[in-house]
């Protein structure tokens, strides 16, 4: 298998990104989120609209997006932007980072994270709890839980933050 190539997405990528986003949700949240949400026939269209808005933002410098491509197929996606949390003390928030399960361990997740969060930048994210694989990935990359939780779409989420040292 070829290694992933990470690049900025373009608007023509949006349908493939939306399909991948939904597939990753189904892989990740099955059993945590109601099947009716994961299997909603309108979910791909909703994600397509979300990604189109995110990539067609009139202030694109506020968001960073990346896709991981292997053999011309988009296998991973990531997006970060300004913090949304009212109590934010960090400069970036990771909104999305998903890699198709068939490509876990390929390095795509690491490369995507580096593409949307710069070294030395403070950041936070919300991760499903339980989701031991994702939580271990983020811990490996310097994120630690700050004790804050919330429930979104029926899924408990744990906030993890990264505050660079030095």
Provide structural commentary:
- The model has no long low-confidence stretch (mean pLDDT 94).
- The protein has a domain at 5-119: 3-Layer(aba) Sandwich (Aminopeptidase).
- A hairpin with a 2-residue loop joins β2 and β3 (73-81).
- The chain has 166 residues and is an alpha+beta fold.
- Helix content is 31%, strand content 30%.
- Strands 1-2-3-4-5-7-6 form a 7-stranded mixed β-sheet, with helices on both faces.
- α1 (14-29) packs across α3.
CATH class category label of the domain at 5-119: Alpha Beta
Number of helices in the DSSP assignment = 5
Mean pLDDT: 94
CATH superfamily of the domain at 5-119: Gcn5-related N-acetyltransferase (GNAT)
Which architecture of the domain at 5-119 would the CATH scheme give at its second level? 3-Layer(aba) Sandwich
Ends distance: 37 Å
Task: Write out the strand line-up for the largest beta sheet, numbering strands in chain order.
Answer: 1-2-3-4-5-7-6
Rg from Cα:
15 Å
Q: What structural class do helix, strand and pairing data support?
A: alpha+beta
């Amino acid at each position: 298998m070829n290694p992933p190539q990470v690049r900025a997405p373009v608007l023509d990528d949006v349908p493939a990104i939306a399909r991948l986003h939904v597939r990753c949700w189904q892989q990740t949240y099955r059993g945590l989120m109601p099947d009716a949400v994961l299997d909603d026939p309108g979910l791909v269209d909703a994600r397509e609209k979300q990604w189109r808005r995110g990539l067609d933002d009139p202030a694109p410098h506020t968001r960073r997006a990346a896709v991981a491509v292997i053999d011309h197929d988009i296998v991973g996606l990531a997006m970060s932007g300004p913090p949304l949390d009212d109590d934010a003390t960090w400069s970036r928030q990771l909104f999305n980072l998903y890699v198709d399960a068939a490509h876990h361990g390929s390095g795509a997740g690491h490369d995507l994270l580096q593409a949307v969060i710069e070294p030395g930048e403070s950041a936070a994210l919300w991760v499903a709890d339980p989701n031991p694989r994702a939580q271990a990935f983020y811990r490996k990359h310097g994120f630690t839980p700050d004790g804050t939780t919330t429930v979104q779409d029926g899924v408990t989420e744990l906030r993890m933050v990264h505050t660079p040292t030095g």
